[in-house]
Amino acid sequence: MPSLSLLPLFSLISLFSLSSAYTTTLSLSPAAFAPPLSNPWQRLNHLATASATRAHHLKLPKTNISATKVPLFPRGYGGYSISLSFGTPPQTLSFVMDTGSSLVWFPCTQRYTCNSCNFVSVNPSNISTFIPRSSSSSRIVGCKNPKCRWVFPGVQCKECEGNPTACTEFCPPYIIQYGSGSTTGLLLSETLLFPEKPVNNFVVGCSIFSSRQPSGIAGFGRGPESLPAQMGLKRFSYCLVSHRFDDTPVSSDLVLVSGAAAGKGSATNYTPFRKNPSSSNPAYQDYYYVTLRKITVGGVNVKAPYKFLVPDSDGNGGTIVDSGTTFTFMENPVFELVAQQFEKQVGKNYSRATEVENQSGLRPCFNISGENSVILPQLSFHFKGGAEMVLPLADYFSFFDDSVICMTIVTNSAAEGEVGPGPAIILGNYQQQNFYLEYDLENERLGFQKQLCK
């Protein structure tokens, strides 16, 4: 969640001049920001490190029927991006879709600066930005605007004396911390445009400065400032194409539904969302918690302790679904149980590739050179309500050079047996590949089924 900032308002405001039921489908594609890497192990290490860093942030955050479809593209840095159009006339920008946060923001003004943004295909001095002065519908959100409290619930506004119309106090500047970087700016009221209808007075962040965030972020979390909440969606769904299509024109659909349209069908498994923990950390209210009953490897229950599977009142433990995390994260005690079971079952036939483990940051890895076919134990997540997610092999093991395979789940260095702050398990997008995922907001449940995403 964003936190209050002491940045001088005038330093941000002076950067721009401002004039005082349906379904949408968008294209979803892997997001294209990855540092230059010389070999595949470095890329794995980058994704593993980014996933663990993102998990650390999520655990300890500092913040009538018609259809719309939006293309969703896979990107090399590990996320998925969509294009959205804001303003009058419209300005179209790319956003990373993120179910682990709620604010929607874009790089803003001609003076936008991004620190440490030397990514592949990104020129830090030529990042596409939104220009408020070119939009007749742009307005800075005022402090007394109720929507200011979506981001700053406890904000204190000055009382306007004399002529109320002369009161020009604005909503405070925000600072948002992500696992990979941060961003800061002011809240705007703008028009979000879709072919079916415009969404007027949409609150969006106009970021002036960011660190390691060359693209905007479209927050799909559970907060009132999120895109689903502001659009009044009853449901949204997506099917993530494989990361092997990273940085290509291949995409799938992100479907936004505001009416009571039917879901995917009887083949969809559903598990209820959990009530978010009443923690003092407001960021936990953004997350989509689900109840994971057990994890099996080759049909064997790894017997993860209950305290890791179900969050307590402070938000310690439990499982969330996050499109912004690449590799699934597990607290060390749970990870070790899963890794040990794979080592026990796979180690009978294949030796450990310890050198690759050191280079990639992933484990366990196994040597499979000379093998015509490889048989590995099935990894399954069993959720409340009987829903079982049986992962395709490519969702939890990566193959390299036809000689090595590595498990694509990451962990931390938490004390043995202890539950750290925040979610204990974060289901990342790598494990969501080629699954139809449905966030049924009206019925408070998550649906999923295997599907070849196109």
Note the total helix count: 7
Tell me the helix content.
10-25%
First CA to last CA: what distance?
33 Å
Q: What general form does the structure show? A: globular
Low-confidence stretches: 1-11, 15-20
- Outline the biggest β-sheet: 17 strands, mixed
Query: What does the average pLDDT come to?
Result: 86
Count of strand segments: 29
Structural class: alpha+beta
Secondary structure elements and pairings:
Layout: E1 3-4, H1 9-13, E2 23-30, H2 40-59, E3 67-74, E4 80-86, E5 91-98, E6 105-107, E7 113-115, E8 139-140, H3 148-151, E9 174-177, E10 182-193, E11 198-211, E12 216-219, H4 227-231, E13 235-239, E14 252-257, E15 269-272, E16 288-290, E17 292-297, E18 300-301, H5 306-309, E19 319-321, E20 328-330, H6 332-346, H7 354-360, E21 365-367, E22 379-383, E23 388-390, E24 397-400, E25 404-407, E26 409-410, E27 425-427, E28 435-440, E29 445-450
Parallel strand pairs: 2-3, 5-12, 6-11, 7-11, 19-27, 20-26
Antiparallel strand pairs: 1-9, 2-4, 2-14, 3-4, 3-14, 4-5, 4-10, 8-10, 9-10, 10-11, 13-14, 13-28, 15-29, 16-19, 17-18, 17-22, 20-27, 21-25, 22-23, 24-25, 28-29
